[in-house]
Amino acid sequence: MLSIDPKTNTERENYKLLIGSIIPRPIAFVTSVSEDGTINGAPFSYFNVVSSNPPMISLSIQRRKGEMKDTARNILAKKEFVVHSVDGENLKDINETAASLRPDESEIERTELTLIESEMIGVPGIEESKVRMECILEKHFPLGEGEDITADLIIGRIVRFHIDERIYDKGKIDPVALGAMARLAGISYASIGEITEMIRPD
Fold first, then answer.
1. What pLDDT, in 10s, does the model give residues 133-150?
2. pTM higher than 0.70 for the full model?
3. What is the pLDDT of residue 96?
4. Pairwise CA distance, residues 91 & 102, whole Å
5. Are 183 and 25 in contact (CB under 8 A)?
6. Most buried of 30, 39, 98, 136 (most Cβ within 10 A)?
7. Domain count along the chain
8. What CATH number has the domain bearing residue 139?
């Protein structure tokens, strides 16, 4: 087995090891609003659950050459954002939003996604997602040392769930009906595939 010291790797080399080994990764499609009212939409695969009481999720948003991305900047300014599930039906449109645009350009306008008003916050969501979570900023942690900040870890508290009735039954979400897509390495994605059930020991 190879033994690799991450300190001897470039950032890109460590990135390839991480995204190649930590798979599949759930995808969060995040909408946010800039100071001038531009609606930003972007997918992130450094995303997961933090807590169920209160319900909280995490996003790690990598910086480009030390510069904060639009999504992180918008969230810190407005303290609000919406997280959406990604499935096979909306993946193509959401992939389009990964384009690098100016802060005053909306990625949503490159797609056929439909904006929908939120109930608890001022940031709109998209109608085509089967799960939509309205969030407010709970915590922000810049990651890195000194002036060398490389990422922004965002903890969001969910203030409203929106669940498609077709995937919801008796308080649970049907994973097959949800059809969530996951991120692999490079340009590869994966669907749920075969599901294995196993009872946990007492």
1. 999 999 999 998 777 899
2. yes
3. 94
4. 22
5. yes
6. 30
7. 1
8. 2.30.110.10
